[in-house]
Write a structure and sequence with these properties.
There is one protein chain. The chain is α/β, with parallel strands linked by helices. It folds into 2 domains: 117 residues, Rossmann fold; 96 residues, Orthogonal Bundle (Arc Repressor Mutant, subunit A). 41% of the residues lie in helices and 21% in strands. It contains 8 helices and 12 strands. The strands form 3 sheets. Strands 2-1-3-4-5 form a 5-stranded parallel beta sheet, sandwiched between helices. A 4-stranded antiparallel beta sheet has the order 6-7-8-9, with no helix packed on it. A 3-stranded antiparallel beta sheet has the order 10-12-11. Helix 2 runs parallel beside helix 3 and helix 6 packs across helix 8. It is elongated. It starts with a strand and ends with a strand.
């Protein structure tokens, strides 16, 4: 059974989340403070964490940092903070998704299920097929109906990172760190240039991409 850790100091909301998640077959632990969350996560490791940022003892980002010190469990952040900067900070700190309060219960449950699916181990060397091209991660090749697409090593590395996170947004800082290294985490223009090149080579309409999607100001996402 999938275990969800709900971290929220709003007792009524935490209770409602617990009831709805259990009704859909999840096992649920509830923590009302950041310290309780870290203790609970350590003693009963969750499969997904639903984390409020506005906690009474620790900031939610501190809890997220504490979790990321030892686990890659998916974390869905809940917050009434609507500023884009807060979302970017949470995603850069390692959150997998961000939901702004108030939210629909069905939407949150769907996001929990999606987080569980994405966290399942992927095949070691999958082949990803879209309507317009195929990415063979084992052979490090991209092909279309007309043959192989020539990619530079940097273009390939960027595409590979996005494909391996299929359906999930990858933050700008993470992409720059993985493809170019930690010294380049502020060079966001690199991403714009290289994504434009990849779109020209792979998208049927580069001006209206359907596979290499921009999440404005935050990162990029690959959809098949």
């Amino acid at each position: 059974m999938t275990r969800v850790l709900v971290v929220d100091d709003d007792k009524a909301l935490a209770r409602a989340l617990g009831i709805n998640l259990r009704a859909r077959g999840f096992e649920v632990d509830v923590a009302l403070t950041g310290r309780d969350a870290l203790t609970t996560a350590g003693s009963s490791p969750p499969d997904v964490v639903v984390l409020d940022l506005g906690l009474p003892d620790l900031d939610g980002l501190e809890v997220l940092a504490g979790l990321r010190g030892w686990t890659s469990v998916p974390v869905i952040v809940l917050s009434a903070r609507e500023e884009q900067g807060q979302k970017v900070a949470a995603l850069d700190a390692g959150a997998d998704d961000y939901v702004t309060k108030p939210f629909g219960m069905d939407e949150l449950i769907a996001r929990v299920r999606a987080a569980v699916r994405r966290s399942q181990p992927a095949p070691e060397a999958p082949t990803v097929v879209t309507d317009h091209f195929t990415v063979d991660l084992a052979a490090r090749r991209v092909t279309t109906s007309t043959g192989e697409v020539r990619l530079t090593p940097t273009e390939w590395h960027l595409l590979e990172v996005l494909v391996r996170s299929q359906g999930r947004m990858v933050g700008q800082k993470q992409l720059l760190h993985e493809v170019w290294g930690p010294a380049y985490e502020k060079e966001t223009h690199y991403l714009r240039v290289y994504l434009a090149q990849l779109r020209r080579k792979l998208e049927p309409d580069p001006a209206n991409p359907v596979h290499l999607i921009t999440e404005a100001g935050m990162g990029y996402r690959f959809e098949d």
